[in-house]
Amino acid sequence: MNLRVIIIGSGGRLGAALAREWSGAGDSVIGFNHASLDIGNADAMRAALQPLEFDVLVNCAAQTNVDRCETYQEEAFLLNSTAVALLGEICEEKGARCVHISTDYVFDGEKRTPYTEDDVASPISVYGASKLSGEKELLKISNRHLVVRVAWVFGPDRPSFIDGILNRAVENEVLEAIGDKISVPTYTIEAARLLRPFLSEISEGGILHLANQGECTWQEYGQYAIDCAVAAGVQMKGRTVAPLKMADLKAFIAKRPVYTAVSSEKLARLGGVSPRPWREAVKDYVQTYWAPGR
Ligand SMILES: NC(=O)c1ccc[n+]([C@@H]2O[C@H](COP(=O)([O-])OP(=O)(O)OC[C@H]3O[C@@H](n4cnc5c(N)ncnc54)[C@H](OP(=O)(O)O)[C@@H]3O)[C@@H](O)[C@H]2O)c1
Q: For residue 125, what is the domain's CATH number?
C-alpha cells in the first residue's frame, strides 16, 4: 500500500535518504527541510502541516550538535522535545502516525552488551536528555506513535565520520580515530528499507532500535572503511588508523557515553528481516557511493 508521508528534516542525512527511497518505491512524500520549516517555530509548524492530508509523519529534524546542546540547553529542549510534542499533537489531530527518530545517546553507556528497548535510558548529556524528553513527550500523547533510535548514521546524502576519514586517508598517511568508544553504524539506505514496513503493515508503537548488526569503535569503523576503499582500487595514502583515547579529545564539551551499541532484535522479530552486519553495510556504501569516480 502506498502512503502519504511527511518527512520533517528532509535535507538531513537520514531524512533525505528516507524521502528518496520511499518516493522511489511509490509513496507520496512531502519533505520539509530546515529552510522550508523551522521546528522551533510552533506557528510555522501548524501553518505548514495543518492544511496537509497524510498517513504518517516522520521527524528526522533535530539539534544534533551534541556539544552545542550543552551550551544552548533551552534550544536543545525546544527542538528535540517541545517540537516533537507539537508534531505528535498535530498527528493526533490528523489521525496520522508520528515516527520520531531518536538516538543511542539516551543511554549512559555503562552496559557492555547491545542495549535493548527495555533497558533504562539514563542520558549523560543535554543532547541525550533532550532527545529522551522528546521520546517521552511523543509516547505520552499515544503509544501507537513510534520512536526509532538509530546510532552512528552514515549514507550518501550528507558526509559523516566515514566520509571524513576516507577523504583524509586519500591525502594523509597519519590517521587517528577514537578506539575506546563503542557503538554501531546505521546505514541510511538500509534504514529506509527496514523502517518502511513499520509505517503501515506493522502498527506496533513504542520504542524500536534500528542499526546495523554488531558493534565497533570509531577506529575499527574507520579502518574497515579504508580497507574497503583500498580493495575497491582507490589510491589511499593512509592505510592504518591509530587508536585515540576519548579522554585525550579536549575539544569535546559534552560527556559521551562509552558504549551505546543497540540491538535490532525487536526490529528483526517484528519486521521479519535482520539488518546486515555493519561491515557489509560499510562495504556496500564505499563500493556504491564513495569509491566510484575516484
Ligand atoms: N548522525 C548520527 O550519527 C545520529 C546518531 C544517533 C541518532 N541520530 C538522530 O538521527 C536523526 C537524523 O539525524 P541525521 O544524522 O540525519 O543528522 P542531520 O543531517 O544533522 O539531520 C538533522 C536535520 O535537522 C535539521 N534541523 C536542525 N535544526 C532545525 C530546525 N530548527 N528546524 C528544522 N530543521 C532543523 C538540520 O538542518 P540543517 O543542517 O540545515 O540545519 C538537518 O537537516 C536525528 O534525530 C538525530 O538525533 C543521529
A: 3.40.50.720
Q: Report how far ligand 1's centroid is from the alpha carbon of 62 (Å).
A: 4
Give residue 136's domain range.
4-152+186-211+256-276
Among 64, 137, 162, the mutation site with the greatest number of ligand 1 atoms within 8 A of its Cβ is: 64
Per-residue confidence at 83, pLDDT binned at 50, 70, 90?
very high
pLDDT grade, residue 247 (50/70/90)? confident
Query: What is the CB-side half-sphere exposure of residue 199 using CA atoms within 13 A?
Result: 26
Pocket of ligand 1 (CB under 6 A): 9, 11-15, 34, 37-40, 60-64, 79, 101, 103-104, 131, 150-153, 158
Produce one character per residue of 92-130: b if its CB has 16 or more CB atoms within 10 Å, e if not.
eebebbbbbbbbbbbbbbebeebbebebebebbbbbbbb
Average pLDDT, the chain: 97
The answer to whether residue 9 is domain-embedded is: yes
Which amino acid residue places its CA nearest to atom 25 of ligand 1? 61
C-alpha 197 to ligand 1 mean position (Å): 23
- What average pLDDT does range 19-43 have in this prediction? 98
> pTM for the complete prediction?
0.98
